[in-house]
Design brief:
Layout (H helix, E strand, L loop, with lengths): L3 H10 L5 E6 L5 H15 L4 E6 L17 E2 L4 H10 L2 E5 L10 H7 L3 E6 L9 E4 L6 H11 L8 H14 L10 H12 L4 H8 L4 H12 L2 E3 L4 E6 L1 H6 L12 H4 L6 E7 L6 E7 L5 H8 L3 E2 L3 E6 L3 H11 L4 H6 L3
Parallel strand pairs: 1-2, 1-4, 2-3, 4-5, 5-6, 8-9
Antiparallel strand pairs: 7-8, 9-10, 10-12, 11-12
Helix pairs in contact: 2-5, 2-6, 3-4, 5-6, 6-7
The structure holds manganese (II) ion (MN).
The site of manganese (II) ion has 6 residues, from loops.
């Protein structure tokens, strides 16, 4: 948490009407969208003008969230995004550790003289005017809740705000399954329920599939490469496969976790060609003390969390898979000794 001086400073800054922009990372997930929507609705109940500016669009399964339609999508109107950021006197950056994660918005963030506030749980955060970083936290949404309590804003939290924050917590913890979950996570969830959110309704919305998602499971499962000696699974989908099933953004979200459901597997990788640019996007998931973010950082221009990270490659899909498989011997010992 921010220290008491910083909390006091922030209160002072927010005691006057402000023009606030809140930014999630590129390709925002449930935690990025939930935290920005939750925080924006709290700030709007005060005296502030608040606009969420996302670098690009977000998955369809998150569109049910209260006020999701008010999110400004930079991709569809880059000039508008630039103007909004230029006009801001406060910029919140949520669920990412450095401006480059907000893609082309980084340029405008860096150029702005606004007060900048980072709230995030990723490793290696950049420092800003206010930096609330805690890599032990399972979700930025939990951190936003802790900030709300520390600032005594909890009386402003209604059912809609609670729903946004609860959604980010369950999407970033796989429904409270990940080892990152803390007593404070469950306490936060309970408090959000007391503020009116109904978890079963959120779960019902999140469990709803698009037809294309269901159909994509077939080629995804078919692509399985199993390396039991390295306790590793590799999956891949080509652009052609994605498009032939009518791929929509978010359709393959979470697929990579299926690999970890196989007995004795501790490392799962999913490589998919981007449908719009020449790029292979890579998701890494691991169990226990095996740090998959190290592989992402060292070899695939990425990073993230110990058990969930991502990367990218400009080589072909086949070459990227080969490159990855060739790396496995380097991690053989760590993989073998991973305790779950
Ligand atoms: Mn997150």
């Amino acid at each position: 948490m921010l220290d008491s001086n910083q909390l006091f400073e922030l209160k002072k800054i927010l005691s006057q009407p402000r023009n606030i922009v809140i930014i999630p990372h590129k390709n925002p997930d449930g935690d990025a969208i939930g935290s920005t929507l939750g925080l924006s609705q709290v700030l709007k109940k005060m005296i502030h003008q608040v606009q969420i500016v996302s670098p690009n669009d977000f998955p369809k399964f998150l569109k049910f969230l209260p006020e999701a339609k008010k999110i400004f999508i930079g991709d569809y109107n880059p000039k508008g995004a630039e103007i909004a950021i230029k006009k801001a006197d406060i910029i919140f950056m949520l669920d990412f550790n450095e401006p480059s994660r907000a893609d082309y918005l980084a340029e405008h963030i860096n150029a702005s003289s606004a007060v900048k506030i980072l709230i995030d749980h990723h490793q290696f955060p950049q420092e800003f005017d206010f930096t609330y970083s805690d890599t032990q936290m399972p979700a930025t949404c939990e951190m936003v809740w802790h900030l709300i309590e520390a600032m005594s804003w909890d009386n402003l939290v209604d059912e809609n705000i609670a729903t946004c924050l609860y959604t980010g917590i369950i999407t970033d913890t796989g429904n409270f399954k990940f080892p990152s979950v803390k007593p404070s996570t469950l306490e936060t969830a309970a408090k959000l329920m007391k503020h009116g959110t109904e978890p079963h309704k959120i779960l019902d919305r999140l469990d709803t599939f698009t037809v294309s998602r269901l159909k994509l499971l077939s080629p995804f499962v078919e692509s399985l490469q199993l390396y039991p000696e390295y306790r590793t699974t590799v999956f891949k989908l080509s652009r052609e496969q994605l498009l032939s099933e009518g791929y929509q953004k978010g359709d393959t979200e979470g697929f990579v976790n299926y690999g970890l459901a196989i007995e004795n597997i501790v490392f799962s990788v999913f490589m998919a060609e981007d449908t719009q640019q020449d790029l292979v996007k890579i998701s890494f998931r691991s169990k226990g003390d095996f740090d998959c973010s190290e592989v992402a950082r060292k070899y695939f221009n990425g990073g993230g969390h110990k058990n969930a990270s991502g990367g990218k490659s400009h080589d072909s899909l086949e070459d990227t898979v080969k490159e990855f498989v060739n790396l496995l011997p380097e991690y053989a010992e760590k993989l073998e000794n991973t305790t779950v």
